[in-house]
Fold this protein.
Amino acid sequence: MNALFEAITKWFSGAKFFVIVQPWESAVRTRLGKNARILASGLHWLIPFADEVRRYNNRVRFYPIPTFNPSTRDGKTLTIGGLISFSIIDPLAASMAVSEPETCAAAIAQSEVARLITAADSVASIEVEKLCSYTARVAQSQLPGVQVHYVRLVDFAQMRTLRLLQEQWRLYTDRDKQERA
């Protein structure tokens, strides 16, 4: 009898009979893997184990673009990091297109900035504001259901990186070995 009671308790603890969507959220409910539907704020009843709900925060979000090191055509290496600002405007389209809008937006912005930097002839030819606005437009076009507000580069420096210092050190040590031989 005790085992039956434990089994029923485990079943009910995993079952969700309702979901509350906050005023700043919207949610997408899928029933048995089909029939995706947008849920507005409020209380919504669910069929346990048949309904899956994914919530989306509709407020403006900021997500970091990880620091990376692209090089221009003249061989100058830059250290660049940034920030992307966006909000979910169509949760159904966003849920059908990407699983994690935050990381996808940052990855698209990072790859576009890297592409533009590597195409630049020199550091002096890079116009940061144009680069940021163009990157925001590209991210907007590739993320359905997401409104990209802006992209900002918060780290933008021309400097030797650890990778370049290590390569230079290897060259010097290899040259020293050859001179000793």
User: Anything to note?
Assistant: The chain has a mean pLDDT of 85. The CA atoms of residues 66 and 131 lie 17 Å apart.
